[in-house]
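Quiz preparation item.
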């Protein structure tokens, strides 16, 4: 039984302790913190906070307070997760996550290196941010659980460390190792990988997600403008849904964009001079080593012909059962020179992953937020604290850039690193990554455009300007596949040539699958199949007429997207039998008949954007540039939008340097308060693809203010 699975059966082995940990939150002291900071929060007519502080730490304090006003429950609930004590509050459901955090040693890294790895100004900034959260908690006692308080700067850093792991697929590798049987072979010298790496599904909360970010240079614009689309896809609600804010200090910080609640920095957004968007990438950044264990000593493993001692420690997992019964469980944690170790019924494995021991993610985001030009932004990116993410960049000076950012290990080219690796050879324990200059990137291409939509980094612009695949070894683990969004976007750029502002917006809101999309072969198989059942013949004819669009009136989109998604989820790419095709098509027909009583309902009657009492038709769909994802058709016949397009912006600088920004949020600034007028005040605009001025410009903001206040004075 594996270490993590075995954890679910620990109740018989636990021993009782004296009660749940209580917090040590000094509300009286924290309630005075506002006197130490000089900051005001300006809420615009949509409720979006524009935070202005005298210094960056002043701004951070106010930024935290504003976030807490809109997102307190999300922020508070995340703290135990980052600390590895969520089981105290959620019981057994949180125990495995707690063990994972302790197994990785995240907090040992934090405690040892926080003072030394982070610069003094970064520490000042995030400590002020923590102060802002604690001040809010102290002044709103009716909303807080003091057992989760106080929030510390290290909590903030831990959140960044953990989220970055989850975004490049680390969790999936751990789940694979813990399956009942070994899933991969052990690679040997001479097994070098010569095959491309495919992108597996990227999911958050069980939802497939992606992102778009694309830019054009002045010579590719009819108006001579530089333009950037910022369109990172996330769930529409929850802890990793986009929240919009503008933070500014009198010492130079001035940026607006999207972030996850609990973050002291903007993740994607724009300043007066620069802008960037991010898309998820998933290079191969995790390696599994099979350890040979000494048959006479289970705590020794072979390395370079010698038996080495596994590092051993005990960690305590505290949990509450049935909502009231407190227990503490001690668990063994093992590590080798390779990294943390898992024992299973089929072997002992060490995990090595990109970013081990790295805690500067928050500092890199902070430096990106502070950047004033292309050079400073690239300098921030060259810190290379992020394990993954692609970036598309544009600026006032006409520069554009695509960067496949990753901590790509330098691996022995003799081995197939898609498989597991022998754990007895220390030369395979990589310690270096490709340098920043060696990462796949495109700077100011002759084509005039870059386009990132979770695809291979070797196809992001015109062919002549792409990074050269032959410059990289297969062992670097770069993905090689194309999403529909990537394929469709590149086709549109190639087709249109120099484009207008309206055409740039139209690409972002495009609602079509490419004829070359990876799903289209399913339609070809359906068209070539002889069906006997009348319902399948009717469905076949409907799909034959489909233009691959997902506009509101499209009568084939519901059936077509169902076929695409079902086939992908069931891994039927190679299904060629008539029975399999009939089952695939018949299943979608049955779903639509039950839900709508017909197979050809207009897409807008199925695809919906829902917030409170609002229930709106919305165009677009899965892996469409206008990205809309649902979990499946519900009993009410709706496919409700739960992920994809959230907060997004179109940013441009005209030939004379004048900045223009338009954007829209999926719902509104009041993330959790259903009674607020801003709970859903942008939902209709979002559904209708109506963007507005986010009021980044100070003069325009001044005429559109709802209220201005200092934390504690509202």
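Solution:
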């Amino acid at each position: 039984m594996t270490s993590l699975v075995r954890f679910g059966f620990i109740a018989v082995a636990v021993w009782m302790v004296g009660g749940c940990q209580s917090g040590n939150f000094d509300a009286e002291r924290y309630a005075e913190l506002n006197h130490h900071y000089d900051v005001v929060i300006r809420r615009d007519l949509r409720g979006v906070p524009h935070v202005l502080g005298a210094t960056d730490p002043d701004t951070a304090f106010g930024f935290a307070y504003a976030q807490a006003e809109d997102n307190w429950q999300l922020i508070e609930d995340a703290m135990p997760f980052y600390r590895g004590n969520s089981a105290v509050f959620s019981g057994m459901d949180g125990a495995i996550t707690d063990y994972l955090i302790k197994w990785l040693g995240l907090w040992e890294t934090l405690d040892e290196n926080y003072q030394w790895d982070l610069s003094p100004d970064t520490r000042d900034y995030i400590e002020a941010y923590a102060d802002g959260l604690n001040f809010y908690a102290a002044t709103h006692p009716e909303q807080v659980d003091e057992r989760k308080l106080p929030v510390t700067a290290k909590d903030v850093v831990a959140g960044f460390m953990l989220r970055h792991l989850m975004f490049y697929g680390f969790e999936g590798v751990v789940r694979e190792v813990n399956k009942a049987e070994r899933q991969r072979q052990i690679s040997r010298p001479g097994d070098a990988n010569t095959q491309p790496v495919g992108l597996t599904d990227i999911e958050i909360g069980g939802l497939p997600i992606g992102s778009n970010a694309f830019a054009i240079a002045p010579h590719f614009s009819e108006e001579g403008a530089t333009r950037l689309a910022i369109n990172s896809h996330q769930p529409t609600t929850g802890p990793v849904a986009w929240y919009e804010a503008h933070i500014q200090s009198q010492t130079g910080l001035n940026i607006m964009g999207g972030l996850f609640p609990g973050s002291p920095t903007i993740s994607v957004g724009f300043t007066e001079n620069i802008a960037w968007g991010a898309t998820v990438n998933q290079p191969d950044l995790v390696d599994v080593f099979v350890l040979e264990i000494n048959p006479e000593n289970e705590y020794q493993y072979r390395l370079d012909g010698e038996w080495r001692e596994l590092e051993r420690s005990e960690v305590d997992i505290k949990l509450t059962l049935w909502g009231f019964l407190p227990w503490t469980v001690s668990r063994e944690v093992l590590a080798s020179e390779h990294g943390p170790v898992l024992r299973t019924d089929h072997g002992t494995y060490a995990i090595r992953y990109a970013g081990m021991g790295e805690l500067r993610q928050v500092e890199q985001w902070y430096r990106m937020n502070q950047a004033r030009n292309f050079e400073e932004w690239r300098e921030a990116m060259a810190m290379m604290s992020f394990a993954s993410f692609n970036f598309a960049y544009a600026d006032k000076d006409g520069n554009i850039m695509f960067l496949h950012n990753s901590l790509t290990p330098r691996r022995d080219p003799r081995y197939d690193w898609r498989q597991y690796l022998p754990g007895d050879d220390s030369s395979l324990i990589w310690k270096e990554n490709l340098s920043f200059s060696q990462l796949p990137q495109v700077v100011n291409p002759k084509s005039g455009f870059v386009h990132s939509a979770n695809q291979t980094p070797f196809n992001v612009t015109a062919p002549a300007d792409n990074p050269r695949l032959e410059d990289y070894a297969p062992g670097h683990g770069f993905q090689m596949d194309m999403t529909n969004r990537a394929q469709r976007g590149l086709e549109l750029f190639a087709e249109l040539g120099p484009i207008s502002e309206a055409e740039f917006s139209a690409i972002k809101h495009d609602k079509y699958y490419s004829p070359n999309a990876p799903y289209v072969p399913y339609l070809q198989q359906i068209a070539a199949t002889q069906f006997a059942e009348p319902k399948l013949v009717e469905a076949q004819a409907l799909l034959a007429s489909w233009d691959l669009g997902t506009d509101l009136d499209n009568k084939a989109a519901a059936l077509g997207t169902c076929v695409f998604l079902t086939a992908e989820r069931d891994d039927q790419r190679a299904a060629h039998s008539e029975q399999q095709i009939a089952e695939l098509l018949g299943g979608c027909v049955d779903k639509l008949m039950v839900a709508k009583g017909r197979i050809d309902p207009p897409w807008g009657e199925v695809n919906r954007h829902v917030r409170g009492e609002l229930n709106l038709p919305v165009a677009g769909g899965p892996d469409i540039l206008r990205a809309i994802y649902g979990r499946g058709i519900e009993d009410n016949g709706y496919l409700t939008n739960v992920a994809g397009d959230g907060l997004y912006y179109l940013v441009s600088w005209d030939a004379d340097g004048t900045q223009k920004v338009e954007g829209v949020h999926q719902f509104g600034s009041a993330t959790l308060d259903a009674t607020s007028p801003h709970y859903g005040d942008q939902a209709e605009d979002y559904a209708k693809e109506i963007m507005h001025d986010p009021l980044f410009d100070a003069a325009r903001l001044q005429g559109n203010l709802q209220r201005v206040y200092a934390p504690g004075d509202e």
